Structure formats: structure tokens, C-alpha cells
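A note from the maintainers: we've had questions about how concatenated examples are separated. There is no special marker in the raw files; a new sequence line simply starts the next protein. For clarity in this README we add a label.
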Amino acid sequence: MIRILTALTAAALMAAAVDAEDVAVRAYFSTRSLELSFSTDAVGAAPIREYQLFYTTDGGRSWNEHPERRSTPDAFPFVAPSDGEFGFTIVAIDAAGLRTPPPQPGTAPSYVCIVDTVAPEVRVARPTPTEAVYGGSDLVVEWAASDADLGDRPVSIEWRRNSNDPWEEMTGQGPYPAEGRVQWFSPLASGSLEIRVSARDRAGNVGHWVTPEPVRVVSFDGFRGSRALAADPYSCFRRFPLHYRITGFDPHEVAEVQIWFRRELGPWQRINDPDATTPYIFEAPDEGQYFFYLRAISKNRHADRPAPGPDTPADQRVVVDTLPPDGELLAGVGEGTPVHTAGEELPIQWLVHDENLDADAAKLEVSVDGGRHWRLLAKDLRSTDGQGSFLWRPPLIGSESTRFRLVVSDLARNRSVIDARSPVRLLNPRVDPKETAREHYHHAMVIARTQEPGSTGDRQQLARALEHLEISLLYDPNFAEAWHDRGVILRILGRHPEALESFAKGHRLRPAEVPFTFDLVRAHLDMVDQKLDPDGEHLANATAILASVSRESIYAYPPGEYRDLLITQRILAEDIADRRVAE
């Protein structure tokens, strides 16, 4: 009798024992690296000499022998090639040659491992990203989790008041099914809260959904005194709840609840709440200010107050604003990519447009690595008439692309992320810019030299080399070799107009360098070959450059590639010019 004892993962150890003739034991694992330990009873009178592991990937229809054998009952290592179901059986051979029968097509495995490394996906329909809950009312959570290996009740729901607080179970009724909806009475009278919905599969993988923004808890200030109707004074949705209470009649006496509304100073319009139960979900036809008035009718057709007239004060005002703020953000001084010395104050200014701007709801974020990682620079920034400014003293670091963004909200909780018009290049005053330029140039050359001569090269590698050259030229705009080699890479990438411009800048800095002259001429002739020279300007430029290089200076250059190519170019340019004249 053979028993598979354990399947061991890097994170967990699961023990199981099963007779070969029993139903297979099934276990779930969140890693593809498994170890299978086993024990056996004797096959015959002789001691066991060898153990074989067989595995199946199709439920026993076919079997494969593990490449390793064991002389002692140690663990067999097994690496699953992918997620899925894998079955196992052990065969023992004793010193007399007796063996347990190996599995045949159709033999059921003794032990089944389900490998699942993918976390469940959690989708939440409510609360919505900008939903609010009223103090003293229910919050609805509606979710759906999906995964190939979910259990019966895989979902948990938790909440917390602040981002630093520990998570608490929300209702005390979990765990929940994969799909569901619960209502929860918020214990908060005001403030905000976060919600997390988690789903765990049988392998132990966990997927989370967390509210992207805290859920706001709105207090019922509107019910103070004689006011009988309350709502959030600003809504970023056209559809929102109106909470009310009837004070003129007992609940059993109410036959009809009328909600009157007007947009801006328009006429009053009446809506009847069909179930006469708070809240009523109002749907605004458009943006703007809406005024509301509550009126109840009893079963004997008495009203608790008269219908509203043109001058009747409203019970509640709600501003419907579904448009996020827009604007612009400027960092540094200067056009293009502003250059700023680290350690000195950097001015940052913004102008935001929104009719309902929250004056203290802006925060500024910075990234010193071109936008890959962001950190908070300042929050609760004030904007006066939409305008604001901030002075930042950067640390003593160098950065080729320091980016800024402003996260701003209006009173209706619409939010925008406004990126700065251009990045800022930070110079570290303790670092020599030319030395930094040389370092990046060296990196570019190391990458570029890995390409096969004459080939189009690995475009991704060449793009990396080009990035280093761009940075090098930011630090030293007069670096002739960097301009020239930038042109070489651009030419390989087929970006001929940019290559020509780069070669021209290198040639202006080093007009006596024959290789620079050669590549500039070749770039002009490329424009001719690519049919980008309808007026003959590039051919004329190539001819003029070659004419400016005397034959004596060409032949004075050491014999070799550049001298021969310059002579060939000169002949080629003259030949093209002659053919154009003939045409």
C-alpha cells in the first residue's frame, strides 16, 4: 500500500494520506513549485529498492514518468509548467523485483494538486467612486468576485475611518457569497470612511477592491429646526437622494408626499413620491441650482402646508455639477524644458476654472523620475479666484525630467489631475554637467556597440541609447560627438529629417572633422533617396559641402574608409546633379 503524505509549497505544508484504491485527495496551491513526500508498505518480503513518481495532466487519460527516481522515501520535486490540475501516483519496486502496478490510461490518480497562482477579481458596483452616505442611514455594498477556484463564501467586507486605522469587519455577517448585496448602517454621523471588499480562492490567493476615494458621510444638518427635507448641497451626479421627514401627520395618516422643485428661478414643478417613503431619488434634467419644497397630503385630503408660490422659500438647495475642474499648471521659468538649480526655490503656479471650486482642496505631487513614481509635495493648497502658487526648494539631486501635477476637487467632489505644461530639468550644483554628459554618452555608446555593424539593430536597444544621448545633450548642448552619434542612431531608425538636423549641429561644432562632414553629406543624400527633396535643396547642400572640402584636404586624410567614401560621395553628388540638369 502506498500513501502520498505531503505536498509542500514555499508558503504552506499540507499533509494528506490516501490508499491507492481510494478516491483521490485534492488540494489547492498558490505556487507552481511543489514537493511530494510519500510512505509505503512493503510490496513483498524484500525491502523496497526504488520509488517512481507518475503524473497526469488530463485526469488519468495519459501518464508521464517523473525523470527522477528515489531509493528512499524522500520528497519528489515537481514544478508545474502552468496553472491547472495535476494528478500523481507512486510506484514502488522491491529488491526482489516485485512492483506495484504502474498507472495505465484511465487509472485515477491517488493525489490531485490544483495549482492556482491568480488572485480573484473583485468588481464593486456600489458604493460608486464619489458616493456619499448620510449619517443615520444605510450604505449599500454590491459586489461580484470571479475566479476559477472560489469557495462557497469567499468574500469579506471591511471598513475603517482613516487610512492608518486597522480594518474592521463591516456587518458581522460575513463571509459572503461570490456575488451579493448588503446594507450597512454607518456608525458615523459625519466624516468619511474607506471600504475594502476581498475575495479568497481555495489556493489562498486574495484579491482586493478598495474605495479609490473615501466615502463621505454627510450629516443631516437640514433636519435641524423646522426644516423637513435634507440632501447633500452639491452633487456630481444628476441622480441623487432627497431625504425627508413628515412632521404634520402621523405616518399612517400620510396618503401622498409631494416634492416640489424648481431650477434656478423657473416655475415650481411637482413630483409625487410613489411609495411615500424616504428617500426619494431625484433625477435632474440638467446642470445648475435646484430648489426643493416638501408637502404632505393626508388620507382625508388635508395638506400640512400650502403649495409653493413664486416667493416661497425652499427647504433645500442642491447644486448639480457633473463637470470636473480644468486649468493649467506651470513649473519653473522658461520655454521648453525649464532648467533649475536644485536647492533654490522653484516657483509653481496654477489657474483652475470651475464654478464650484473648493478653495482648499488642491494637492500638489512631484515625480523626479519622469512620472514613474509620485509623492505628495503639499496638500490643502488654497486657490483664490482659481489661482494659486507654491514655492518648492528641491533637494540636491539631478533630474532630467521632474514632473508636477495638481489634483484639484470642486464642492461636488468632481476631481481632476492637471499635469504641468512641461517637465523641469534639475541641475545638482555639486555635479559637473559636462562630466554627467560624458557619463550618459558612454552609456549610449556601450548600448549602441552591441548592435551588428550595418544592421538595423534592435530598435528597443537603440531607443535606450538615444535616451542617454538626449540626456547627455541636456547637460552639455555643445557636445559635438553626442550630436553626431545621435544622428547615426536616428538614421538607423529611419528618422531621416531628425538625423539630418543632428548631423548639422555636430558639423557646426566640428566643421573640420571629416567623419562629421561625411555623415552630414550622407544625410542630405538620404533625403534625396527618400524623395524628401522636391526642390533639390538637399542635393545642392550636399554638393556645396563637398565642394567646400578640397581634394587636397580629402587626400590629406589618412587612407581608409572616410577618404574613399568622401570621394565616392563627391562623384555621386556630381552625377545626380548632372542627371537633373539633363532632365
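[label: protein 2]
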Amino acid sequence: MESGREGNVPEELLLVATFLCASRKKWEFQKKKQLFKQANLLMLRSSRMTSLVFQMMQRKKNLDTLYPRRHFSAGQVNPSPSDISKPSPLPSQTEDAGTSTTLSKK
């Protein structure tokens, strides 16, 4: 009757071997699943970083178009006074002076 089995292997040993094989496959599956999750996280971080770098480059490009840099000649260390425009008075200073006179008149 036991001629159908491979040799004279006890049934308990076959059960243990089957269990170990199944647990090994489960462990390999869990390991692959964990590695896949880590790879997904790395790809997500990479795409976020790429997106952030792209946004920073766009902001820099926008700032460069709004506020272009002045280019001076190579020999010129400091810009000459004619190259620097004088700052205009701040609007808050002129408005404060106007409001203080109107308040004192009331």
C-alpha cells in the first residue's frame, strides 16, 4: 500500500516538508511585496523631487523675467552711480504725512 509514496518517508515528515515549503513561499511573497512597496516609495519620492526641482526652475525663470539681472563689464567691479537708479520714496511715507495733517485738522 505504501508503494505509491516516494520510498519509506513518514507522513509527518511529508507534512512538515509541505508546511516549510508553503511558509517559504509565503515568506518569499512577503519579501517581494515589501521590496515592491519600497520601490514604489522610492519612485514616488523621485517623482516628487523631480516635480519640486521643476517648480523651482519655473519660479527662477519667472523671477528672472520679472527682475532681470544687470550685466556689467568684466573689468567693472562695482557699478557706477549712473547705473544704479535712486530709490523712489516709499508710498507709506507720503501717505502717513497726508493722513497726519488731515487728522490734526479735524
